[in-house]
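call fold(seq) -> tokens
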Amino acid sequence: MPRSHRCSFCGEDFPSGIGIMYVKVDGTIYWFCSSKCRKNMLKLGRDPRKLKWTRHYGREERRI
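ret:
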């Protein structure tokens, strides 16, 4: 069974072998389902809680 991943920006599930894995210098791993999500997060710096097409829309940030 192939492993599925969840997009770090929009929250959608997508199968392994599709999408983009982005690793920051500090070791943080981001999975993106499309270049649209990657550009919105990394290049444009948008907040997924403010975009209606994401699963995170309207949710408050959880603080631990």
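The CA atoms of residues 32 and 56 lie 14 Å apart.
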